Amino acid sequence: MTRAFLVAALLAGCAAPQKTASAPKPVKDVSPLERKFADTPDDPKVNLELGDRASLGGDYLRAEQYYVRAEALGTPEPQIVPRIIKSLVMARRYDEALERCKKRLERTPTDRVTRLVEAAIFEALERPREAERELTVLVRTKPDDPNPYLALGKLYRDSYNDAPRARAMFTKYLALAPKGDEADSIRYQMEEAAPTPDDPPPAAPSPAAPSPTAPTPAVPSSNEVPPSQP
Fold first, then answer.
1. Residue 47 covered by a domain
2. Is residue 83 in some structural domain?
3. What is the mean pLDDT of residues 68-77?
4. What confidence score (pLDDT) does residue 200 get?
5. What is the pLDDT averaged over residues 70-92?
6. Is the Cβ–Cβ distance between 104 and 5 less than 8 Å?
7. Quick one: average pLDDT of 23-47?
8. Residue 36: which domain range?
9. I need a surface site. Which of 79, 88, 114, 179 has the fewest CB within 10 A?
10. Is residue 118 part of a domain?
11. What is the C-alpha to C-alpha distance for residues 73 and 66, in angstroms, rounded to an integer?
12. Which one is predicted more confidently, 202 or 121?
């Protein structure tokens, strides 16, 4: 069990939340929000606000601690889980973030944002086939959403080095979101990568000289069909 789940389990099992022993300690320079936390440590909104502030400051461990408390104190899952996942991802704790995504999707398979994040984590872990699987689910369930096409285009470009498939996905993204956040950048990349009419066709590679000991490859007759490539 990860530390985050252990803390959440301990907090959830407390009969009297005010006796929770695992609350993160505020820093010495006490702000009004931290004074409020000292007075009402089991206010989920206060914990959520402190988590947000810690996250903005780059203290992702402290942010996770406050978020886990807010979760155990009743903050709705759609509101708190994305924050926890973001903290784990920013801290490069990808395996824990992936576990959070999986549990969320087991309960709510229609959560598209979490599935998109899960695909990005798979790609970060160099697991492109699993990332492609999750993105394909998003395309199948909502074909007019441009974001999965953008993610698939980047996946095919960066992980598979498959320019034709990447271009097809980027083209679909631009058709659905011509003024999207990354539309201009993707359009520029596609124009740069497109061959010009003046470009000469690539030269065919010269056949390698056969080795003296190598067997002569069999040439299929006109009525034979060459075996398909794996």
1. yes
2. yes
3. 95
4. 58
5. 94
6. no
7. 78
8. 1-12+32-94
9. 179
10. no
11. 10
12. 121
